[in-house]
Amino acid sequence: MSGKLWDGRFSEKTGEIMEDFSASIHFDQRLWPHDIKGSLAHCRMLADAGVISKEEFEAISKGLKKIEKELRSGSFKFENRLEDIHMHIESRLFEVAGKPALKLHTARSRNDQVALDIRMWLKDEIMGAARRLLRLQKTIARMARDHMDAILPGYTHLQRAQPVLFSHHLMAYVEMFSRDFDRMMDVYKRTDVMPLGAAALAGTTYPIDRAAVADMLGFSKVSENSMDSVSDRDFTMEFLSAAAICMTHLSRMSEEIILWSSAEFDFIGLPDAFSTGSSIMPQKKNPDAAELVRGKTGRVFGSLTALLTLMKSLPLAYNRDMQEDKEPLFDAADTLKACLNIYIRMLPHMEIKKDHMRAAAQKGFLNATDLADYLAQKGMPFRKAHDCAGRMVAKAISQKKELHEMNLEEMRAFSPLISPDIFEALSLKTMIKRRSSYGGTAPENVSAAVDRALARIEGLLEPHDPGHGNGV
């Protein structure tokens, strides 16, 4: 089958420059496992419906399995003349199976065929991302469990604000990546819809069984409207949106790792295996892994923007513009996978410099709020307590002291409510322990949060059928 699928309508051959321009095989060839699987299911359904004979079914299925082996081994030949993975497989099928191959495309179009392939491919990618997100959460939660005694400054506006457990800070990222996991599973639900049988846009006249194909391919439902089936790319935009939000979280973590590993912070040390040096400055150890993740975030944002822009003005149903959906989708999925893998591998090997963290938490008047709370609990209205604590901070600054370095007499000059117990109230240990409201940084809270997170993650990692449960 050397000609085009549409040669009957045309009197001239497609120009070579047009073949090169319109070819997508250089990127959509990765869809081949799904194209083969979808074709086998379609073929089986056609045979069951009596559209093709048993002998034709056997010839086609045998041919598809031979092509699968060729693709898997790398011996399959690609050329721009055949445009995409669908035409490559169909053309080769005619070579190995003969005339029965001409019947495989009965009751389907490349429009619903590519929609099927993308959904099948993306379902696999979503589940892979979900598993990595769980592994990343588990990695971070274990770090939190192992460093419950580390205290560092919490920041607002990148200014030291209040002391928190390092574990509490880590668990904030577990929350972020937990939401990313939930988003991925939500996207999975809307990707798990079988479009094959919509044909070009209007359905088909053949007595096909779409539900049977969905069952063979592991889809939980069949698409309702044939026009929407071939033109819908909401699920790809949803995936890119979820990926972009996840990359935002990875980028925020990257920024903190970059800051914390600098000499100015010196809270962590990065493993050599995930760092690089300078071509001119021998002393440098650069946080390149974190910087690259931060940089690649913009790349995923760009993929989302590209697809939103692509789809925003397309009339129903399929348009060739939609061929342009795959490269940004594939690139974003690959990028997300690589970034998650880097963090899963890198984080457990970071050096946590607890002494440096604690020293930083004892400077910068991080106990000023606790001083105001102390006065309020002694009976002073909080707004007056806040003002009093502010004046005491100003006095301490003028003396180049921290609040807890002032003596009792100096403190009592601001309020007679202050007594010797003030020093215990302003200690790091007390400040951390007293923040016991649900979700706060008190050790018992954080320890319980770690336990809950690890139990939840372990439960989700249990083997389940992804199409019929929450396990991954």
Secondary structure elements and their pairing?
Layout: H1 16-22, H2 25-28, H3 32-48, H4 54-73, H5 85-97, H6 110-146, E1 151-156, E2 159-165, H7 166-191, E3 193-194, H8 210-217, E4 221-222, H9 226-231, H10 234-260, E5 268-269, H11 288-311, H12 326-346, E6 351-352, H13 354-361, H14 368-377, H15 382-398, H16 408-412, H17 422-425, H18 428-434, H19 443-461
Parallel strand pairs: 3-4
Antiparallel strand pairs: 1-2, 5-6
Helix pairs in contact: 3-4, 3-6, 3-8, 4-5, 6-7, 6-12, 6-19, 7-10, 7-19, 10-11, 10-12, 11-12, 14-15
Would you write up a description of this structure?
The chain has 472 residues and is mainly alpha-helical. It has 3 domains: 16-106, Orthogonal Bundle (Fumarase C, Chain B, domain 1), CATH 1.10.275; 111-197 and 224-353, Fumarase C, Chain A, domain 2 (Up-down Bundle); 361-459, Fumarase/aspartase (C-terminal domain) (Ribonucleotide Reductase Protein R1, domain 1), CATH 1.10.40. 59% of the residues lie in helices and 4% in strands. It is built from 19 helices and 6 strands. The protein has a two-stranded antiparallel sheet with strand order 1-2. A two-stranded parallel ribbon has the order 3-4. A two-stranded antiparallel sheet has the order 5-6. Strand 1 (151-156) and strand 2 (159-165) form a beta hairpin. Helix 10 (234-260) packs parallel to helix 12 and helix 14 crosses helix 15 (382-398). The protein is elongated, with a radius of gyration of 30 Å. The model is unreliable at 464-469 (pLDDT under 50).
